Every structure is written in structure tokens, then in C-alpha cells.
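Anyone up for a design puzzle?
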């Protein structure tokens, strides 16, 4: 919370700097020597100098402070506390100290050593926060004062501001690229550790998924089973059901709104349809578990079918409702982008509206529609909450939509819940599943973009 308040204060100082710099430039412009830039650029110059250095100091402080505080807290522990402790146990000890200090759940709450260390950590954190605020505000005030003094007619404020904005844009792009690279590299590194314990062949083509491992070698299931085929099959089954719902409904609604609907109706119906994309997935999960699943089970029992209380059909149907806006909105935009000349030419040849849609408009918009469908498939593959609440956690290799199944994303969540040791095959398998999911969704997105890019120019 204090960081947020501090950022708001810096924004306020930047606004003050803009007003001060612009006002000084206006005063100077009344003299004999003309200004190099517009007064607003001088205001932006002062604002940037008052905000950017302070933000850099604040960022560096937030990065360095936790490491320094933790090192000081560990050095202040009673002698012998850390003797012969592996790094993993030291990390768990620090986690207990942090949780105790900030009022979270801790496994060793009440331990005098932990309580004393937590009090020490809380005190250092409070002191560090105050010092960070003082240093950040001092740098901001100094930057504002120095920048204001530099506001003279010869200052090339526009050039300086544009160079700064250019650097900010480059850094923003680098952050996005480096974040993606970091995610990929972390998945590759942890997956490599997993594949040193479990063969790649067994993971990709194994037919049994049971990652629970025993604590002792003589217990049953001490090795675990890490065949990902049941998870892939469950993911594809639910995705297929979802697309059976989303593809026809979304495409037909897009065609209606683009070609048949009155403009006033379209202006109301399209936003209402897109509201579905803004509903939290946990709400869809409640709807699937409490309404759709019992309804399907009741109908199944009426026809003598054995329907599980958690089924792929319930999860897939609700997921299909959730991704209808993806198909509908993207397809609607693509259909509206088809040139009107194609419609006029079809009508001139005597074709009806329905013939024009089926023979001209849909084929012309087909690349974009295929791209929309593939993007919707990627969205369905990555869904978690609906499957957790409506499809269950059972890793079954089945194509029966009335049975409980699980997906790759659900297993990732299950494997990483709670305090885990990241040196066992059970935990590392989550990263292998994440890498597999990443490759699948990346392939679908590449195919979608390739289809759109290949055929887009044919209808310009």
C-alpha cells in the first residue's frame, strides 16, 4: 500500500513539475530570445526529471531491500540455528518468518526463535519503507529543482523529451520480450530437470497419470506414473465439446449481426454478447457445477445412462458459452471487413442475400474465421477454473463425455498447491506439463496467424 501511495505522490510531483516548467517557459518566452520548443515540452522536461529518477531509485530499493533484510535477519538468528541446513530448509525457515511477520499462516507459529526473527524482520521492513519514501521524495524534489533551473531559451526540450520517450518505448518492448524469454527458459530448465528423472517417451506416450509418490521406497506407488496422454485426451475432449457449442453459435450470431440485424439492434446486442467475456471464470465454474452438471445428470438418469456428477460434457458446454464472444466478435469484424463491392457484384448477378453470404462473404472471410476459431481453441485449452469445478480431477483415458476427466491446466494447479519441494518428479512434472501446453497453444496461434496472413491480401 505504501508503494502505491508513494507512486501517487510522485505522479502529483510530476504534475507540479509540468506546471512549474511550463509557467517558467511562458515567462521566458516574453523576452527577446525565442524558445527552442513549445512551453509544454519544457513542462514535460521538468516532469520527467522529477519522476523518472525517483522511480528508478524506488525500483532499485524494492529489488535490493528484501535480500538485504533477509540476510540481516538470518545473521541475527541464534548461533547454530542454520547449521547443516540445506538451502531448501533455509528457504522454508525464511518463509515462516515472513508469514509470521505479516500475519499470514505459518507452520511454526509460536516458536520463540521464529517470533523474534519475525519481529526483527517487521521492524527492518518498516524502517526500510520510511527510508525508501524519504530517498524517493528527495530525489524527486532535487530533480524538479534542477530541471527547473535548466529551463532556458537554448534548452532543446523537445529533443530531450522525445529521446526519453523513445528510450521508454524501447525498454517497454524489451520488458515484454525478456518476460516471454524468461517464462520459456524457466519452463525449459525445470522441464529438463524433470526429464532427467522421467524419460520423455514415458511422459509423452504413457497411458497412466498418477504423480503421487510415496515417502519411502517400500510404499506402494513410490515411483509414480507420469503419462500425459490421459491429460491431453481430457483437454482435447473438453475443448472439442466447447467448440461444438461456441463455433456454430458464435459464427451464426456474427453472420446475423453483420448481415441481417438492424443497426440499432446490433448496437445493443453486440455489447451484451461481449459481456460474456467479462464474467469471471469462477462464476462459470459455479454455474457448471451447481446448474448444468445436475441438469445433465438428471436427464441422463431419465434415459438410463450412467452420468458422473462431474462430467466433461458439463464443463465443455459451459466453456463453450464462455468463448462464444471470442468467435462472435472476431468473426463479426472479419465479415464486416469484406469489401462491399463483393456483395454488390453478387447481387448484380442475381444472387439472393443467403446465396451471397454462403457463396461470397463467408468464403472471403474464411481465413479470419478460421483464425478466430483457432484462437478460441487456444483459450479453451488454457481454461482451468471451469474444469476444476465441473469436470473433476480424475485422469481417465476416455472419450465418454459423461465421465469425469481432467486437463493439463488443472493438474498444473493441483501439483503446485501448497509448500512444495522443487526437486521431486511430482512437482517438476508441472513444468513439463506447462511446456507441453505452451507448445500446443503456440502452435495453434502460429497456425491461426499464418492462415490470416496468407489469405488476407486476396480480399483487400
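Challenge accepted. My sequence:
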Amino acid at each position: 500500500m505504501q508503494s502505491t501511495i508513494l507512486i501517487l505522490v510522485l505522479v502529483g510531483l510530476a504534475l507540479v513539475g509540468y506546471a512549474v516548467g511550463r509557467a517558467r517557459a511562458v515567462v521566458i518566452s516574453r523576452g527577446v530570445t525565442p524558445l527552442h520548443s513549445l512551453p509544454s515540452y519544457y513542462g514535460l522536461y521538468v516532469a520527467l526529471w522529477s519522476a523518472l529518477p525517483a522511480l528508478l531509485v524506488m525500483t532499485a530499493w524494492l529489488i535490493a531491500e528484501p535480500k538485504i533484510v533477509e540476510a540481516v535477519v538470518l545473521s541475527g538468528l541464534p548461533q547454530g540455528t542454520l547449521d547443516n541446513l540445506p538451502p531448501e530448509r533455509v528457504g522454508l525457515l525464511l518463509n515462516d518468518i515472513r508469514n509470521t511477520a505479516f500475519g499470514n499462516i505459518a507452520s511454526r507459529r509460536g516458536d520463540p526463535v521464529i517470533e523474534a526473527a519475525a519481529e526483527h524482520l517487521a521492524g527492518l521492513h518498516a524502517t526500510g519503507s520510511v527510508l525508501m519514501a524519504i530517498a524517493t521524495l528527495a530525489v524527486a524534489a532535487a530533480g524538479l529543482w534542477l530541471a527547473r533551473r535548466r529551463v532556458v531559451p537554448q534548452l532543446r526540450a523537445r529533443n530531450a523529451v522525445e529521446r526519453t520517450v523513445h528510450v521508454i518505448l524501447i525498454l517497454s518492448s524489451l520488458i515484454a520480450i525478456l518476460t516471454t524469454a524468461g517464462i520459456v527458459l524457466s519452463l525449459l530448465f525445470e522441464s529438463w530437470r524433470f526429464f532427467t528423472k522421467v524419460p520423455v517417451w514415458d511422459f509423452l506416450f504413457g497411458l497412466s497419470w498418477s504423480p503421487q509418490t510415496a515417502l519411502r521406497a517400500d510404499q506402494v506407488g513410490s515411483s509414480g506414473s507420469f503419462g500425459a496422454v490421459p491429460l491431453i485426451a481430457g483437454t482435447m475432449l473438453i475443448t472439442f465439446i466447447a467448440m461444438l457449442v461456441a463455433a456454430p453459435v458464435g459464427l451464426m450470431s456474427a453472420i446475423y449481426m453483420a448481415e441481417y440485424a438492424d443497426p440499432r439492434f446490433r448496437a445493443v446486442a453486440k455489447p451484451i454478447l461481449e459481456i460474456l467475456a467479462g464474467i469471471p471464470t469462477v462464476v462459470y465454474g459455479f454455474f457448471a457445477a451447481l446448474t448444468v452438471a445436475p441438469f445433465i445428470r438428471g436427464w441422463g438418469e431419465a434415459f438410463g445412462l450412467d452420468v458422473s456428477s462431474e462430467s466433461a460434457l458439463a464443463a465443455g458446454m459451459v466453456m463453450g458459452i464462455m468463448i462464444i464472444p471470442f468467435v462472435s466478435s472476431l468473426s463479426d469484424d472479419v465479415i464486416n471487413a469484406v469489401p462491399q463491392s463483393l456483395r454488390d457484384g453478387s447481387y448484380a448477378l442475381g444472387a439472393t442475400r443467403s446465396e451471397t453470404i454462403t457463396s461470397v462473404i463467408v468464403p472471403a472471410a474464411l481465413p479470419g474465421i478460421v483464425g478466430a476459431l483457432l484462437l478460441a481453441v487456444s483459450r479453451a485449452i488454457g481454461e482451468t477454473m471451469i474444469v476444476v469445478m465441473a469436470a473433476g480431477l480424475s485422469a481417465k483415458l476416455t472419450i465418454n463425455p459423461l465421465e469425469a476427466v481432467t486437463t493439463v491446466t488443472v493438474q498444473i494447479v493441483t501439483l503446485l498447491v501448497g509448500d512444495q519441494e522443487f526437486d521431486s518428479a511430482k512437482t517438476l512434472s508441472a513444468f513439463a506439463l506447462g511446456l507441453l501446453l505452451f507448445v500446443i497453444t503456440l502452435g495453434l496461434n502460429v497456425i491461426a496467424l499464418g492462415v490470416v496472413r496468407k489469405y488476407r491480401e486476396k480480399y483487400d
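A detail worth pointing out: The first strand starts at residue 209 and ends at 210.
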